[in-house]
Amino acid sequence: MSRVRGGENSTLIRVSSTPVRAFIERVDVLFALSPGAVEHMDGRVKDTLVIADEEFHEEGAISLPIMGEAEKLGGRIFANVVAAGAAANLFGVREETFDEAVRSLFERKGPDIVEADLRAGRKGYELGDELREHLEISIEPQPSVREHVVLNGTEAVGIGCIAGGCRFMSSYPMTPSTPLQVFISENAAEFDMVFEQAEDEIAAINMCLGASYAGARSLVATSGSGFALMEEAVGLAGMIETPVVIYIGQRPGPAVGLPTRTAQEDLNLALYAGPGEFPRAILAPGKLEDAPEIAAHAFNLADRYQIPVFLLSDQYLADLYYDLPSPQIGEEPSYHITRTWEGYRRFEFTADGISPRGIPGYGSGTVRVDSDEHDEEGLITEDLDVRRRMVEKRNLRLEMLKDDTLKPEVYGDNSSALICWGSTYWLVREAIESSGADVSMVHFSQVYPLPHDTLELLESFDRTAVVENNYRGQFADLLKLEGFEADERFRRYDGMPFSVEGVAGFIEEVLL
Amino acid sequence: MRPEDYDMNVEIAWCPGCGNFSILRALKMALADLDILPERLVLVSGIGQAGKLPQYLKCNHFNGLHGRSLPAAVAIKATNPQLTVIDVSGDGCMYGEGGNHLIHNIRRNPDITTIVHGNMVYGLTKGQASPTSQPGFRTPVQVQGVFEEPFNPLAVAVALGATFVARAFSGDVERTRDILVEAISHHGYALVDIFQPCVTFNRVNTFQWFREHTYYTDHDPADRLLALEKSLEGYGGGRFPLGVIYRVEGERTFEENLSVYHGDATPLWRRSHDPDKLKRLIESKRMV
Ligand SMILES: Cc1ncc(C[n+]2csc(CCOP(=O)(O)OP(=O)(O)O)c2C)c(N)n1
Ligand code: SF4
């Protein structure tokens, strides 16, 4: 629920000796830290070991004096750490490791707070001993994860933005895009970036276009309603052929919808945003492992083709954490900026539709861009022949973009396939793995434009279903426009991500 | 530089006799006085007759969206503080569609200049009321005449602490030039509202009318309360003061507040990429 404090909230943590990266319904152990917690997990508490505070008198649960101990330590605020200590003990985490984690988490709050939290953790450990009598958990420690970093989807994208040479970001807060705004502003001083909180979304994207016109790779982050306000400027980006990267953290709509839930409902919004016709690209990272590379690629793509490029994320991906090997970010970004000369023309007609991009103050020429239809120099024109050629010039790049796409990832070698895009990657993949079904996965991390051979690839399967977090089946519709009609659509639109069990159930019922 | 050095050899789409011509002339004169090279100058504008001005002046230009010139302008300056950035707008564009941006850019205090062509009417869309239209002004849309209070840009700007606030009259090219010279050389945000008669759609607020309803003030522009008082003059009767209404020196600008420019004036796009720093950031996400 959209609350800052109070209400019921839950965090799902999966622990395993092998990597697990997706949301599941099943809850093996539930720590209930409020009287309503069990009810809040409605339907998901089956064969679950419930550990509740003794004050709640939860039936069938193991009672622990979490609140009481927290209060003795200085207040209920320590209940979380007491419970975390107990959980860590239950899962065989060494106490020193846990202490280290507490230290790094609370370090910036000062030594007194760290000390109190360490004491709370220790108390939790003591309580945890008791739990081990009720539940036997055998998890093999994996030394290889020592080499791993722990990221969430936002950080993975943010790292990619920096790697892609982002220099300017202006945005207006809106969940779940705000964490990316925080990430960039936290790192702005270190990485020579400007971050500005704009007065509204319209200002945010217009600032980005100004910055980009003046030479800075620019980024704007928002969510559905916020993006709706930016549409006109997406058209401006198209008209003045100015690169910009637009990150949309999708959440359920319409309007303000479910602010803290998840959805993949804004594909159409990105696809059709802006008046007129002009090219764009839409990328949708599916996993943290390649989100940095894809985000960096967004900047290079925008720069190379002088177009708006979308990064479609969602609440699920943005807030999902897991450990992974340190992302290796490839080549340095290549800039496509030209020194200008006397007589330089910003919109010069070229064979491929891409004019050399000058920026003001670099060279002896002047750089003129105009939202009205313009000639090669950027001066307003009503010459219909020039107009026609400009339309063709702008749209020509879409054809080139089709040759320069991220290929979908095909997992498995079966005659049926689940087709998915964006954040559903691990959900679908783990569902396939756990069900042992003879089904492949085709995951798109570029949803527009699609690679030339998409039709061929998808037609090679006998049976297909498109899995997506929306009501209409927006990606399935897009595939249909490309000439491919999937047999089934599996959709979820209640605000929750798919679960591994849900997708596995669908495979069994429908695809097999 | 000479004013002619900024000439463009293009056809001008304004009506003959329009007040816009003298603003263009005054601006070229001011730029020449200040010796600003066309390739170092960026004119940013929105949409409207006024918004076309950058087309008629040799320089870099960014003609963006209606009401949205300020966000683009402030970002251009923040990306490369070595450029001279001037924003040109109509009164509908700046005070109507773009009102929110005006308010917040005054708060930012970027080192740019905004010139508003105040013709008290929408020119390009053929004569509807603008936020500065006078009460009683009849148009095809405001059929019974305007009954809203006119927007008072100077009072708003002074109240918000804009560091340079002035008003000019395009019928007086010399004095307009002088005011523009002061505005462009001002360190911080400068707002110049210029009365500009629209000879086609505003038959009430003519050259003659503006001459009769204005006077040059010579108050001390550093006195904020006095400036506020001056900015209220002319509304509901009396004459509008022309000249520098308010000026405060030495305030930090938006760009100066940005950490990237502390001790380094290099434009953003010239900054190099440091993969080692990025590696360190990634490593900081290691838990054990
Ligand atoms: C978003 C948007 N809304 C409306 C318009 C139509 N429009 C163009 S110019 C203008 C008003 C211009 O008036 P003003 O800013 O006073 O400039 P003037 O033409 O009088 O110089 C309007 C409403 C537009 N271009 N964009
Ligand atoms: S319509 Fe009015 S403002 Fe526009 S050019 Fe003509 S006279 Fe000038």
Automatic annotation (TrEMBL), chain A:
GO terms for biological process: organic acid metabolic process; response to oxidative stress; sulfur compound biosynthetic process. Its EC number is 1.2.7.3. It catalyses: 2 oxidized [2Fe-2S]-[ferredoxin] + 2-oxoglutarate + CoA = succinyl-CoA + 2 reduced [2Fe-2S]-[ferredoxin] + CO2 + H(+). GO terms for molecular function: 2-oxoglutarate synthase activity. It comes from the Archaea. SUPFAM superfamilies: Pyruvate-ferredoxin oxidoreductase, PFOR, domain III (SSF53323), Thiamin diphosphate-binding fold (THDP-binding) (SSF52518), TK C-terminal domain-like (SSF52922). Signal peptide: none annotated. Residues 160-392 form the Pyruvate flavodoxin/ferredoxin oxidoreductase pyrimidine binding domain. Residues 2-126 form the Pyruvate/ketoisovalerate oxidoreductase catalytic domain. Keywords: Oxidoreductase. Heterotetramer of the KorA, KorB, KorC and KorD subunits. This is 2-oxoglutarate synthase subunit KorA.
TrEMBL record, chain B:
Keywords: Iron, Iron-sulfur, Magnesium, Metal-binding, Oxidoreductase, Thiamine pyrophosphate. InterPro entries: 2-oxoacid:Fd_oxidoreductase, OFOB, PFO_beta_C, THDP-binding, TPP_enzyme_TPP-bd. GO terms for biological process: cellular respiration; organic acid metabolic process; sulfur compound biosynthetic process. Residues 198-262 form the Pyruvate ferredoxin oxidoreductase beta subunit C-terminal domain. GO terms for molecular function: iron-sulfur cluster binding; metal ion binding; oxidoreductase activity, acting on the aldehyde or oxo group of donors, iron-sulfur protein as acceptor; thiamine pyrophosphate binding. Pfam families: PFO_beta_C, TPP_enzyme_C. Its cofactor is [4Fe-4S] cluster; Mg(2+); thiamine diphosphate. Residues 53-194 form the Thiamine pyrophosphate enzyme TPP-binding domain. It comes from the Archaea. This is 2-oxoacid:ferredoxin oxidoreductase, beta subunit.
